[in-house]
Hints:
The chain is mostly helical and 176 residues long. It has 2 domains: 2-124, NADH-ubiquinone/plastoquinone oxidoreductase chain 6, subunit NuoJ (Four Helix Bundle (Hemerythrin (Met), subunit A), Up-down Bundle); 125-161. It has helices spanning 2-21, 25-45, 49-74, 80-87, 90-113, 126-134, 138-159. It starts with a helix and ends in a 17-residue tail after the last helix.
Amino acid sequence: MDVVFYITAFVTVISTIMVITRHNPVHALLYLIISLLSMSVIFFLLGAPFAALLEIIIYAGAIMVLFIFVIMLLNLGKETAKQEKEWLKPKIWIGPAILSAILFVEFFYLINIAHPTSYNLQTVDPKAVAVSLFRPYLIGVELAAMLLMAGVVGAAHIGQHKKMILHRFLKEEDPL
């Protein structure tokens, strides 16, 4: 049990370091997904399967789709096709694939081979999570929601391409 925890912690640390050190946002996003998935395995090993499930559904699912949407908004242009061809090379996806394979092997081990008595599971119902989030931490949840919304609006504003036409008589004629 301790070996699985330490392997998962190693994958988490390595993938988080890769998120910080990547210059390309898509590469960082791939490693961030691996980091979030490994964090969910750690939550599961610590006896919080509901928190692990929320980590996968909310962060690795919904928030990552939002990040991908923002990155797609910001990568408009003629260089996009060339950039996408470079992203499909094995040197780009081999690191996240290896870390994902390690997590998959651990997941298979935990589900099929490990005895359920080897880890301490506690039942936490969704009502208890909702009560804890929306009573003492209501301001934090609302501030996080507003921060995410501001990020999306900012990314959409940066991604827009505006034409500077002051008046229809002032725009330049197309030379034929």
